[in-house]
Structures are given as structure tokens and as C-alpha cells.
Batch of 2 targets.
Target 1
Amino acid sequence: MADVPTLTLHELAEGVWVWLQPGGESGVSNAGVIADADGLTVIDTLMVRSQWEPFAAAVHDLDRPVKRVVLTHAHIDHVGGTTAFRNAMVLGSPVTSALLDQAMPVEAYKNFMPAFAEGFDELAVVGTRPVSHLVDAAAQLTPRVELLPAQGHTDGDLMVLVADVDVLFAGDLCFFGVTPLAFQGDPATWADTLEVVGELAATIVPGHGPVGATADVDALREYLRHCVAGSIPAGPWDSWLERAERDPINIEKAEMLRHGDDGMPPSMIRAIGLA
Ligand SMILES: [Zn+2]
């Protein structure tokens, strides 16, 4: 995996920056910025103010207008900082849009990510911005930015490809060094999507964890296939964070979907303190 510094706007390629957060566990996600002639496109916005304020300040220091915010999906650790970019259009899938229009389940967030409880209290007051522009098909957003809808982590994932520098922002379709979490997704569909993802670009920015490449996507796909099969043998995933918490959720979700049940896995319901 590439050695990219965390908690700073790091220029990965000409006019393409990443803001990585160390670790990559629940609530600790990545964001990105892409420059076009007319201004900037921000990819995801982190979660609580302590995370997104320094990110937004660094983006501001680029001294170019933020024209667009692309949300890879609706999970709170990607959409919490949308209000930091007041004048940008907000692009997301119809699923993302529908979820952002619902009330914020603050108590569930606090139970699932207690380290950020204070941040959630503040976020409940500040709120998030709604999606202003729906993306329901692949689209060339700017000369550099291509939007690619997909499914697997959620029913409405969106990837961002910058083909001229061979960089893909995969959102939470990729977790590197961290166990993926499929409580609102479909491990089988997700693994199928990853067959393609690894071929899209040489450099892949995941939603959580360090910048990676095709080999990291391959390992993630293999892990998800094992979740679908119902048991996980030893493998490269043995070093990933949050295995103990997430293996049961991913296996349970795959098993439920096999029986046509797209509900929340009981193991996840317990993790968010609702059972
Ligand atoms: Zn997510």
C-alpha cells in the first residue's frame, strides 16, 4: 500500500488530493479533492466537526471555488461535513438522497460510535445538506471527473474515476486494512462489483484505510466471497481491524439475503444498541 501521510491534504497526482484518516475504523473515513479548470470537486466530507473542519480548511487553502461535492453513499462518516461546503452542488445516488432526507438516527450513531458522542450531538443541530443533483447512471461530471454508480456496500454506491491520472475514489466499496461492513449491503453483489473495481485504475482510494491497488481489491473480494460461503479461513484479512465485530454481521447479512431477507442483521442491531 502507498505510503501517504494522514490528516493532511496530500497531492496524490496532478490536481488530485486525498485526506486520509489513520486507522479507518467505524467513523474514521477518507475524503478527496479533484481540480478542474472551473474549480474543485470534493469527494465525501467525513463525519463530525473535529474531522471535517481541518479538512475543509485545507480545501479552502487551495484557494479555488468548491463547485461540487460528490457523496459516495449516505453513511454518516461520509456525509457529516456537507455543510462545510455551502455553495457547492451536492451529487449522490437516489438511495443516498432518500436517506439524507430522513431524520438523523443520532442515538444509534452514539451507541455504535461512542467515541464521537459529543460530535453527534453537535451534528444533530447542524444537520447535513440534501442531495441537489441525483446521479442514476454513469456520467462525465467534468472533463476530469467520471461518476460510476455501483452496488454492494449499499444499494446506492457511487465511485469517482479520474482517468487522466489513473485514480479511483471507490468510497466504501473498498476498505483496505480494515474489515468491510455490509450491514446495509450485499456481500455477494459487493464481491461481483469488485471484479470490475480492481481493473478501473492503478491507484485506488478506499473509503477507509490507506491508498491501495488491485491486489488490495482482490483480497477484499476474496474475504467477501468467504462471508457468502459462511466461514472465513486464514488469509491476508487476518491483520485487518474490526474482524471480531464485523465477521458475524457480514456472514449473517449474506445468509439473510440468501433467504430473501434484506433486513438489518441482528448482530448489527445489537451493535447499534437497539436490542
Ligand atoms: Zn459506508
Note: The first helix runs from residue 49 to 60.
Target 2
Amino acid sequence: MSLAIQIQQNGGPEVMQVVDVAVGEPGPGQVRIRHKAIGLNYIDVYQRSGLYGLPLPLQLGMEASGVIEAVGEGVTHLRVGDRAAYASQPPGSYCEQRVMPGMNVCRLPDEGSFETGAAMMLKGLTAQYLLKRTRPVEGLEAGDFVLFHAAAGGVGLIACQWARALGLRLIGTAGSAAKCELALANGAAHCINYSTEDFAARVKEITGGQGVKVVYDSVGKDTWDKSLDCLRPFGLMASFGNASGPVAPFAPGMLGNKGSLYVTRQTLFSHITSRERTQAMADDLFAVVKSGQVKIHIDQTFPLTEVQAAHRALEARQTTGCTILTL
Ligand SMILES: NC(=O)c1ccc[n+]([C@@H]2O[C@H](COP(=O)([O-])OP(=O)(O)OC[C@H]3O[C@@H](n4cnc5c(N)ncnc54)[C@H](OP(=O)(O)O)[C@@H]3O)[C@@H](O)[C@H]2O)c1
């Protein structure tokens, strides 16, 4: 049996309940993992609230680290006793122990702690595919400006550091002066407090009226319109989240009026559909962390059984960097 966090219905943090679930043996392609730490992600909030509709009852959580206890037929990249970490579907990482598909589970490098493993997989692989594979048609070169919203958050702080390592000039946004300081200390070239400043006007100022080549927008509803005004002609609007609510439908004609812009809606789960691709992205992440160019900031830790408080803090914009749940 394993302690797990389950919801019977969608709603606020209070719908999350501690339950005991049976854990069986892994079938073909599966592994059984005993968790050491669990990553908290904003997608957990969307799945809990029902914004992303999934069948109920639902065990939440998309990211964790731990020790492999058993491997099913056909799993060749992991052995019993391996230290491992993952970002993976289906949800269910909020637990002590689980059976799950092995495809997205990666061996942790020797120098990586379980805490770092649990914090960095979903957020780090997201920063990886955004900065390396979600690029404007005119490409990205050292010195180019990009705009990255919620720059002091989990994905944001990793992206600030990785962008600096790539030579990009990342303009961050964040909801307070203290969060802006944090983003700047982690590699953002500029940071705009979007709760007090007009970020589109400031972006124009910073870029000498040119605008940025790409906007990475996980805030959604509140930032969408102004973000389009931050782009240069042929720039890319890369939407990848909805922390403030989903983006409203829009008429494509306005993309022409604003400079023949491109729009994409990205999700990590389109990028990690094969073992090889997952491992290549993870190797890139592990290397940049090992080099010291990206540090994983675990700024909040909650016991798994206090997951309601963790969700409340995340939704109230009280967190910075990564948050983990401990066992
Ligand atoms: N598509 C993908 O592949 C993918 C993968 C990972 C994450 N994501 C998305 O990326 C975003 C960041 O994820 P994360 O887990 O690292 O979370 P996070 O950035 O640590 O937390 C979300 C942040 O969004 C900002 N925010 C702006 N308006 C908000 C509002 N109305 N309510 C709550 N927060 C608001 C807050 O920062 P400020 O106070 O500074 O505004 C908050 O701290 C989320 O939208 C998530 O869904 C997408």
C-alpha cells in the first residue's frame, strides 16, 4: 500500500485527500518507483481545478524522484536500485510509491540529489524545449532579446539562467520588486514588475522600439494582448500556460496587422513522446546543471500530507523558484 493524494471531484485545494492505494507489480514497459521527493507544478492546479479535464477519481502529480524497486519486461534503461527522476504522464506522482510507464523515467546523475531531481525535471525540460526548440522563424542568436513572463517562478528562474548561458538577453516580468530582484540575480538582463508597470511600453523602451523576437507566455489571459505588442514583425508568440486563466479566442487577422506574427501553443508532452528524445533533453538539462550555469532553486518545501498548503501558496503567487513535497 502507498499513501497518495487523490481527488474525487474538481475544485479548490480542499478537494485533495490523503488516501491509501494498492501498488502492484510493473507490467511490460513499466517500473515501480519508491519516491524520495515530489515536484509541485502549476499543471497540478489545472488538473485539480478541472481546467484540464481528466477522469475522476484522479491521483495528482506529474514529477518526482526516487529509487527503482522493480522493472517490467522490455525496460532496459533502468535497473532495480537506480536513482531516478521523471516528468511524465499519467498524473499520479503525489504518492510514496507507484507503478508507471518507464519511458520518461531517467537515471539521475550521481551528483544530483533526489530533491533537485524532483524539482527540475518538468520545469527544466520545459525550459529546454522552449529555449532550444520553440524558436522564431528568423532564429535566435546571442544578443537577441526574448520576453519571459513569470521569470521568478519555477520554470522562469531556470529559463533566466539558461537564456544567459545561451547569450540571450532575457527580459523577465514578475509580480513584485523582490521577485524582479531574484530574476535579475539569476541572469535576466532586465525585469519588469508587471503589477505596477506597463510591460509592453517598457519592452519597447528596452529594445529601442524594435520589440522582441519571441515571447514565452505562461500567464495567459492577463498578458496575452500586450505580449503581442511586444513582438517584432515575424516574431513568435509562444504560449505555454494559463496561470491567470486561459487565453480567449482571437481572430487570426490581427496577427497580420501586428507584423505577420506567428503563434504556437506548446506542451512538454509533445516533446517527450519517445525514450530517446526524453533522454536527449534530460542529458542537456543535467549537463547545464552540472556546469553550474543553471542552479535549481528549491525555495519552498512542504510535507506531502500538507499539499493543500502548497497549492494555496502557488496559486497565491507566494512562491519563487521550485517547490517540492517531501516524504
Ligand atoms: N506547456 C508546458 O509544457 C508547461 C510546462 C511547465 C509549466 N508550464 C506553465 O508554466 C507556468 C509556470 O509553471 P510553474 O510550475 O513554474 O509555476 P510558477 O511560475 O512557479 O508559478 C506561477 C507564477 O505565475 C505568475 N502569475 C501571474 N498571474 C497569476 C495568477 N493570476 N495566478 C497565479 N499565478 C500567476 C506568478 O508569478 P508573478 O507573481 O511573478 O506574476 C506565479 O508565481 C505555468 O503556467 C505552467 O502551467 C507549462
Note: The CA atoms of residues 150 and 169 lie 16 Å apart.
